[in-house]
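task queued by scheduler; priority normal; single chain, no ligands, no partner chains; default sampling; output format set to structure tokens
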Amino acid sequence: MRSLQEEFDARLYPYGWTNPDFKLTADWLAAMPLNCPPDEPAICSTYTEYMLDLQGEHGVAKLRARSVPAMRDYMVPVLRLAESCSIAWTRPVEEYFDFRAPDAFHADREPSARELSPGVWEAELAAERGAALTFELAEQIVGWPYFTIDAPAGTVIELMVQEAHELGGCRMSE
């Protein structure tokens, strides 16, 4: 369940860092220039790639201009909230998502979210309860999901994407 996993803790990001008037502090590390021509991949610089401990040489590889135009990027809104349910965790949440532990939760089939306005939903949660929300798109697409959230510091969001989902899927503990 953890393929292409990304963990992002907004509390660790400096607030407003994308704004032009953001003031750098000593905690902000400057970008590291690589001594590599722009038509060669970064591995051809003298900086060692940390994960595989690789280092290349100048002139052994070249980047080529694209021969295929870049794909068009656009936002696709969800069609509707197809289903929601609340989750009472009986095991640590991380345990379920890391190992899919059996009987990690019990699902309450009553809806846990409501639409406040078009494209805006609200799910009220307690510390020991979570929610599962299933959104439907008009058609299958290729891309990356996006959302904005207003939640207390420390709120954990697990986002899973599937090609198809049978409603009533809150039976994940079975």
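post-processing summary
- DSSP finds one helix and five strands in the chain.
- The radius of gyration is 22 Å.
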